[in-house]
Amino acid sequence: MIRFFNTLSGKVEPFNPIVKGEVKLYTCGPTVYDFAHIGNLRAYIFEDLLKRFLVFRGFKVTHVMNITDVDDKTIKGANAEKVKLQEFTKKYTDAFFEDIQKLYISKADYYPRATDHIPDMVKIIKGLLEKGYAYKKDGSVYFNISKFPNYGRLSKIDLKELRPGKRMESDEYEKESANDFALWKDKKEGEPFWETEVGPGRPGWHIECSAMSSKYLGQTFDIHCGGVDNIFPHHENEIAQSEAFFGKKFVNYWLHCRHLIVDGEKMSKSKGNFYTLRDLLARNVDPSALRFLLLSTHYRKMLNFTFEALEGASSSLKRINDFLYELKNRPFEEGENKDISRLVEDTNKKFIAGLGDDLNISVALRALFEMIRKANILISQGKVYRKDGEKLMSSILSFDNVLAVLPGEEEETLSSKLMKKIEDREKARTDKNYELADQIRKELLKQGIVLEDTKDGVRWKVVKSKE
Ligand SMILES: [Zn+2]
């Protein structure tokens, strides 16, 4: 049985999808106004662990992650750099895809972009106006929270804090200002706008997710994830919009991951403890170790990122890799030891039970390392044979379908054609033909090859997501 903590009920509940064997999953994607920081990446890795575990347990998962490419932040960023919104968001959208590839985050089935779905949003906003849940004011459209009695159920907001009738213009705000929120924002000087049936303007952030989730997953779906900071107002507003418009329950299970702090403190650019993946790669951090660190703390616990913890993650990973090396290279004698079969079976059960219990990763990892410890003792006593070695190896590799922290087999060799491409790019760079160099870099990235320019020259890495 699989159980998850559902933010909506505030309880751990058995997981029962709407259609047996299938899971429809929506995870709030990046707002592409900056590089993802490790707090964002923690959320994406938690969602990836969830998805990989469901796939491991035989579910067919349909995963949608939106790209917010129009909202307050993206518009502000584009204006500050004096570039078109599209040009501005493309840079960070590309960077997002590079980052998730480096961290072995498996790809979603759909990455809908907000700017491609304006008509879908307008349809809902129009419907909400017609049904009396929304009203127009000065060219903008607001959701009237007093018309939706369940408002506040997800975030457990104190009803006394609701301030219907007062209006909130910006996309993000505190619980203390639980006001009517903007579905559609009137056309403004210096902002992109669309001519639509609800007037000229642009969407608020929250309506984007209501429109895109229902389009790809249906009006009611199984799991919606995000960080705890999404609970209010973003997810609360998504529920209000979707349930008011469709007249149905929006989502059955809400899973939220907690914050990440750095060295015990809130991450902030001004404190100098703010890290993106790029910052860490520049310090030669191994992406697998970072992934291991970010997934090894339970998603509902605060994660304290430190470089010491990162080293710990590296050495844990090394233990797994050393064990695999031993299994691959030691000349085991023919034969079989029943204790190993039992150990493998027992570990498999614990791994599945651990993750099935609201993704209790500590239990799953403990079982894995305990298996390695016990098997190492048996190996040193000469009690492990060829068939046992194979069983141990395939068990580790099957766990890695969920964890995705081990290097792929193809890591070490690249076809000569691809090597030639890397050389061509080097030459283009030496010739200062940066456009060509960048083009080749992107071509390689499409094939799962990430290039890193270091002071000792270019390094490459195969980072295909292990599906
Ligand atoms: Zn969202």
Overview of this structure, please?
This protein is α/β, with parallel strands linked by helices and 467 residues long. It has 3 domains: 15-262, 3-Layer(aba) Sandwich (Rossmann fold); 314-407, Four Helix Bundle (Hemerythrin (Met), subunit A), CATH 1.20.120; 415-462, no CATH class. Helix content is 46%, strand content 18%. It has 14 helices and 17 strands. It has helices at 38-56, 72-81, 85-102, 118-130, 205-217, 231-246, 277-282, 287-296, 307-329, 338-356, 361-380, 386-403, 416-430, 434-446, and strands at 3-6, 11-14, 22-27, 60-65, 134-137, 140-143, 162-168, 178-186, 194-196, 199-203, 221-227, 251-257, 260-262, 265-266, 303-305, 449-454, 457-462. Strand 3, helix 1 (38-56) and strand 4 form a beta-alpha-beta unit. Helix 13 (416-430) runs antiparallel to helix 14. The longest helix is centred in the C-terminal third of the chain and has 23 residues, at 307-329. Bound molecules: zinc ion. The site of zinc ion (ZN) has 3 residues, from loops.
Keywords:
single chain, 467 residues, alpha/beta, Rossmann fold, Four Helix Bundle (Hemerythrin (Met), subunit A), 6-stranded mixed sheet, 4-stranded parallel sheet, 14 helices, binds zinc ion
- Rounded to an integer in angstroms, the radius of gyration calculated over CA atoms is 25 Å
What is the number of domains?
3
What's the helical proportion of residues? 40-55%
Strand fraction: 15-25%
Shape designation: globular
Bound molecules: zinc ion
Average residue pLDDT: 93
CATH-defined fold name of the largest domain: Rossmann fold
